[in-house]
């Protein structure tokens, strides 16, 4: 009988009846007392209290997702940054106390005197920092002098001089680049150059 009635209805009536039925079941959905309440699964998720084990599992899932996605190299970058910070923490005045005392706190300026660019004997801490990377050695003026002295004994001091000339060229103003590039070419790269 219902089938017969449904066939006889017009298309517009069918659409109205269908939407009324959906609204009826949306309001009186089984297992939910009120149509305005949240879905049961959502409230269950809120009720679950995360334990230490739950947080550890979530952390492991996130780490695994970082490792399995090749386009996301954040984990490797963060590991590199952490190891770099651990390596340099002894030389950071905010993290490690300076020896001798900090001149900004006390009136003792011996720290500045020991770390000037023209001191005869570098401090032990300064020499240890040179051992971290060649960049640290070359960045320090005394370290660069020590490296030049060593390279002269090995008959390859032109290597460090060439590198310093290139660094000077790299950070030069635009108006001086052509002149400095020609000077580097004539001194190091041209046939019959003095430092070749």
TrEMBL record:
Record-linked SUPFAM superfamilies: Regulator of G-protein signaling, RGS, Transducin (heterotrimeric G protein), gamma chain
GO molecular function ontology, one term from the record: GTPase activator activity
InterPro entries cross-referenced by the UniProt entry: G-protein_gamma-like_dom, GGL_sf, RGS, RGS6/7/9/11, RGS6/7/9/11_DHEX_sf, RGS_DHEX, RGS_sf, RGS_subdomain_2
PROSITE patterns: RGS
Coiled-coil boundaries: none
Assigned GO CC terms: cytoplasm; neuron projection; plasma membrane
Superkingdom of this protein's organism: Eukaryota
A Pfam family hit: RGS
Keyword Transcription in record: no
GO biological process, one term: negative regulation of signal transduction
Positions of the RGS domain: 133-196
Record keywords, A-Z: Signal transduction inhibitor
Protein name (database record): RGS domain-containing protein
UniProt organism field: Ditylenchus dipsaci
